[in-house]
């Protein structure tokens, strides 16, 4: 069983729509990352957060430690936002691999013009 | 500045051959990670290096896989006697350091697409 669960697996939207991607995880994480994987395969780190909320342009990431849940929001979506979005968690107490990422399965987002 | 680079970008090899994949991390980054992504599947951890500490090899799928890192620079992932199930994109990432709380951003390379025929 994957310890980092993402939903939905696939998401289709019209340009301009507000997008939400969800991520849930088991207790005790030290940080949560949101990554974007472009159709060509390149991966870019969007956010890293351990509490609260972060915003970068049209992207917003939130995390609720008590509910063990994080969300990635995209406002005014655009076709260029089409990509796979991956949630990844870090547990500080798992052996010697500090910073190792445990990945969700990803959400394929397609935004139509 | 320069990001993480990987070479080759694509590699096609015959089953049973050995392959070497190279990763050049961002200068000054002490932590380096190798991940694998099989077609249609999620990312999986392979191995991790942090400074001069012993690497964590817990993610390597078999003893055919090995990796080395020279100091805090280049890393090489070697796969011996390749099998078709080794076909995947192999991604390298580096971060400033791992830190006690994993709170350093990881920068990913473009990956090496390995195809075993």
Could you tell me the strand content of chain A as a percent range?
over 45%
Report the C-alpha radius of gyration of chain A, rounded: 14 Å
Number of helical regions of chain B: 0
Shape assignment of chain A: globular
Q: Would you tell me the structural class of the helices and strands of chain B? A: mainly beta
Summarize the biggest pleated sheet of chain A.
6 strands, mixed
Average pLDDT figure of chain B: 90
Helical fraction of chain B: under 10%
What class would the helix/strand composition of chain A place it in? mainly beta
Largest interface: A-B, 29 and 33 residues
> Radius of gyration of chain B over alpha carbons?
14 Å
What's the SSE pattern of chain A? Answer: EEEEEEEEEEE
How many DSSP helices of chain A? 0
**Number of beta-strand segments of chain B:** 10
Number of strands of chain A: 11
Structure commentary:
The complex is a heterodimer of chains A (113) and B (117). In chain A, 36% of the residues are buried. Chain A is mainly β. In chain A, 0% of the residues lie in helices and 58% in strands. Chain B is mainly β and 117 residues long. Chain B contains no helices and ten strands. In chain B, strands 2, 4, 5, 8, 9 and 10 form a six-stranded mixed beta sheet that branches. Chain B has a four-stranded antiparallel beta sheet with strand order 1-3-7-6, with no helix packed on it. Chain A binds chain B through residues 2, 30-31, 33, 35, 41-45, 48, 50, 86, 88, 90-92, 95-106, and chain B through 31, 33, 35, 41-45, 48, 50, 53-54, 56, 58-59, 89, 91, 93, 95, 98-108, 110-111, 113.
């Amino acid at each position: 069983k994957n310890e980092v669960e993402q939903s939905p697996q696939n998401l289709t939207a019209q340009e301009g729509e507000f997008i939400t991607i969800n991520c849930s995880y088991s207790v005790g994480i030290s940080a949560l990352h949101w990554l974007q994987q472009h159709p060509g395969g390149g991966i870019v780190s969007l956010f890293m957060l351990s509490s609260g909320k972060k915003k970068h342009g049209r992207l917003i990431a939130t995390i609720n430690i008590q509910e063990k849940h994080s969300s990635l929001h995209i406002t005014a979506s655009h076709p260029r936002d089409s990509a796979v979005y991956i949630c990844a968690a870090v547990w500080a107490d798992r052996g010697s691999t500090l910073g190792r990422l445990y990945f969700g399965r990803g959400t394929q987002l397609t935004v139509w013009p | 500045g320069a990001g993480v680079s990987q070479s080759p970008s694509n590699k096609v090899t015959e089953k049973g051959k050995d392959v070497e994949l190279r990763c050049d991390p961002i200068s000054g980054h002490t932590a380096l990670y190798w991940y694998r992504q099989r077609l249609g599947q999620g990312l999986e951890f392979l191995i991790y290096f942090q400074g001069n500490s012993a690497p964590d090899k817990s993610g390597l799928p078999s003893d055919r896989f090995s990796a080395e890192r020279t100091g805090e620079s280049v890393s090489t992932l070697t796969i011996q006697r390749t099998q078709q199930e080794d076909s995947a994109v192999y991604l390298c990432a580096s971060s400033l350091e791992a830190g006690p709380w994993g709170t350093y951003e990881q920068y990913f390379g473009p990956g090496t697409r390995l195809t075993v025929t």
